[in-house]
């Protein structure tokens, strides 16, 4: 599912495209993505007539900020958030259509309804989405020194990949970017965080920031069979930059040994057994 760079790419696209626009109408075509609205006023009623004041992000949640309310969008494994024209056919996988008075439509496409849309008052957002307050630091937004990062990291007696993917420690990293970060840092996925040396921490801190910023620069990852596209319906280009993910059996781009695909819990992980230690 989309990770931090993909959601940040969409945030920037939305900031450019929809801020200042007024919402003319909202059509909810899939009840599952708005399931949390069982006990709050319907999503459409609260959005129609409102103007978009800004676009922000909390981890992998996109926050469309209006005068009084916030439309929170969370993309799942099969979700796409794309720009459309009112004349474009509405496909069967369309879950939500937001029509602006000027500037076309925003559509949430999701054949399996794995995403989520919720509207809440700005002061009610934490109550409706308590998980937002439980998120760890955001590497694309929060400034954190390597020694502060290391102090938090080395207190953890868990495997590195598990820790990188824990949203309570770092917001928004999944299996793709965790593998790429660990390759860049030269560290094994199953290394215990508490075992890292000062040099290990410095390499991991640098790899974390550089990998995620490169992901944004190339507008995210779209792998074969992956649903992610940007707001304009175009796939991300970072897949061409991946060093280990999807490259099992091929030479490592650093040491030329073979990249390995291993099972880690319920997931697979990609790494070089020679130069990641």
TrEMBL record:
<dbReference type="InterPro" id="IPR010979">
    <property type="entry name" value="Ribosomal_uS13-like_H2TH"/>
</dbReference>
<keyword id="KW-0511">Multifunctional enzyme</keyword>
<feature type="domain" description="FPG-type">
    <location>
        <begin position="243"/>
        <end position="277"/>
    </location>
</feature>
<dbReference type="GO" id="GO:0008270">
    <property type="term" value="F:zinc ion binding"/>
</dbReference>
<feature type="domain" description="Formamidopyrimidine-DNA glycosylase catalytic">
    <location>
        <begin position="2"/>
        <end position="115"/>
    </location>
</feature>
<dbReference type="GO" id="GO:0006979">
    <property type="term" value="P:response to oxidative stress"/>
</dbReference>
<dbReference type="GO" id="GO:0034039">
    <property type="term" value="F:8-oxo-7,8-dihydroguanine DNA N-glycosylase activity"/>
</dbReference>
<dbReference type="GO" id="GO:0140078">
    <property type="term" value="F:class I DNA-(apurinic or apyrimidinic site) endonuclease activity"/>
</dbReference>
<dbReference type="GO" id="GO:0003684">
    <property type="term" value="F:damaged DNA binding"/>
</dbReference>
<keyword id="KW-0234">DNA repair</keyword>
<dbReference type="InterPro" id="IPR012319">
    <property type="entry name" value="FPG_cat"/>
</dbReference>
<dbReference type="InterPro" id="IPR035937">
    <property type="entry name" value="FPG_N"/>
</dbReference>
<keyword id="KW-0378">Hydrolase</keyword>
<keyword id="KW-0238">DNA-binding</keyword>
<dbReference type="GO" id="GO:0006284">
    <property type="term" value="P:base-excision repair"/>
</dbReference>
<dbReference type="InterPro" id="IPR015886">
    <property type="entry name" value="H2TH_FPG"/>
</dbReference>
<keyword id="KW-0863">Zinc-finger</keyword>
<dbReference type="GO" id="GO:0003690">
    <property type="term" value="F:double-stranded DNA binding"/>
</dbReference>
<comment type="subunit">
    <text>Monomer.</text>
</comment>
<protein>
    <submittedName>
        <fullName>Formamidopyrimidine-DNA glycosylase</fullName>
        <ecNumber>3.2.2.23</ecNumber>
    </submittedName>
</protein>
<keyword id="KW-0862">Zinc</keyword>
<comment type="similarity">
    <text>Belongs to the FPG family.</text>
</comment>
<dbReference type="Pfam" id="PF06831">
    <property type="entry name" value="H2TH"/>
</dbReference>
<dbReference type="InterPro" id="IPR020629">
    <property type="entry name" value="FPG_Glyclase"/>
</dbReference>
<keyword id="KW-0479">Metal-binding</keyword>
<keyword id="KW-0456">Lyase</keyword>
<keyword id="KW-0326">Glycosidase</keyword>
<dbReference type="Pfam" id="PF01149">
    <property type="entry name" value="Fapy_DNA_glyco"/>
</dbReference>
<dbReference type="InterPro" id="IPR000214">
    <property type="entry name" value="Znf_DNA_glyclase/AP_lyase"/>
</dbReference>
<keyword id="KW-0227">DNA damage</keyword>
